[in-house]
Design a protein that fits this description.
Shape: elongated
Order of helices and strands: EHEHEHEHEHEHEHEEHEHHH
Number of strands: 10
Oligomer: single chain
Distance between the termini: 70 Å
Length: 274
Amino acid sequence: MQRSGTLFVVATPIGNLGDFSARGREVLASVTAICAEDTRRSGQLLAHFGIATPLLALHEHNEDAIAQKVVARLLAGDSLALVSDAGTPLVSDPGFRLVRAAREAGVQVSPVPGASALVAALSVAGLPSDRFIFEGFLPAKPKARREHLQGLASEPRTLIFYESSHRIEEALDDAVAAFGAERPAVLARELTKLFETVLDGTLAQLSERVRADDNQRKGEFVLMVHGAGEDADAKIVEGRRIYATLAKHLPPSTAAKLASELSGAPRKALYGGE
């Protein structure tokens, strides 16, 4: 009976090529083929390290169709690797369906750890890191984004989001509205690259700094927001979220009274916060 191959899930650098592990390079050079989110971008990485392994496109638009073909090759004895454009595959990148299909087929799936923008950003943020929640990319449409953020307003864990240069201003503005202008936050941009910056302050301060500096609106972002305080702070955040919704349909004083009753937050903290 022929033994199946192994699917290696390989992390690649998020910027600085010196972060690529020796094991990662060895695995990519030794497998039969590499499943890549963007074959052109991954091809440039492989060329830099002198790796000539063939590439197979696997992205969000074809993953369902190609996963079973890849699993068939694994079952036939080929060992393959999975990479994303940068960082650790499956973290806001394609690959979940392939990994699930491989495991369901009894194929060994082995991680080759390395860079991850999520972990890299959190490690330098100075925000509580013992408990955090990763939300990936926020919805692109404004209404959906605002509703999503409002739903997280009372979350006590550190919140982590990915965001693009096209929406970072709007995302920060919506975060201010959902979490309050004074909520501590950190914005990491272009991590491990030439123009890396890590800004900290309140959400309002970060929003102002990004709006005032064109350079701070370029690149790839990780936005980290301090969780709502337990008890009183969480009640105020939740009360403000409820108040913002009710105030669209009711007089401010009535909306504040109802929001206070529903959340347990002081009425003045809600009405006065508008």
